[in-house]
Amino acid sequence: MKILPRQINNFLKDPPKDITAVLFHGSDLGLISERSKNLALFFNKNLDDVFSVSTITNDMLTDDSIIFETAAQIPLFNDKRLVLVKGRGTELLKPCKMALSSKLESCMIIVEATEITSKHQLVKLFDASETAASIGCYPDTKENIIDLAKNLFSKDGIKCSKNVMDLIATRLGNDRATSRREIEKLALMAGPNGTLNSEDIIKSLGDNTVLTIDKIAHALASGNIKNLQKELNKAWYENVHAISILRGCQNYFRQICFASYSVENGSSPVSAVRDLRPPIHFLVQKQIQDQVRRWPSKGAMKVVNRIQDMERFVKSGTIDERIFTNQSLLGICIRASRF
Fold it and tell me: How far is residue 275 CA from its own chain's centroid?
């Protein structure tokens, strides 16, 4: 069955007893990880319990029976065998199909698939099953971020105004793990029963991961090799994933493409950027306007397509993602004026 967005929270709090497998998929890797972990903890508070919990990684999926055989093992100290499966996409299809076609009962199979869309056969397999469910994990909306912040702040009695909440929401959202980490930093800064104002948010989140990626994308679009190398080094130091950087750069150039297309059809750069949806963060609006004057829409789209190809190479897992990302983005930066 397919779990709709409005049903996800209730499902994770109390999953139906007849469900024996759940697939998490989508573009927000942090949200996939968070939701799958929360569901796993529902069934076993100790995920290091080797007698009841098994983990299957991508390199183990060459054996089509691996998930079925693991899930069929009898747990020693728990009611259910918990099987955590971490993969990318197509390699999961046959092992999952074999497991779902068997009448497994005393188990819960939790699958993370990081490279598929809702149209993939794996998602359709789980959607069509009466004993399995699929959950899409996509970047948080403004409302999602505000709800997350309210929940975390309420634990320590932290107060802030609606405007401050709105400001937090504009700074975060590309990745749930990053958003949670940054909100926890704000809670630590405010302290128990503390208060946060706009200056606190700007000071704390001014250099967060989202804005770091924006700086990388801006240096890339500007052809500024020195700044690109500087911001990439900073991102690696902060343990930002290469995929997050590449997707951030894709979004940046996609915004340039849409705005440039509007300008080519009569809009002013200011109006074109102001009309972009979702709205552009106020700290980067001027940057995007400058890039719109520099980049034609076709040139920006060529970069979007090239970065999508880079993402596929990184996901293959056969290369050093940092070296590849550095070299590939440097190549685009050097040729920025020729697109």
Answer: 25
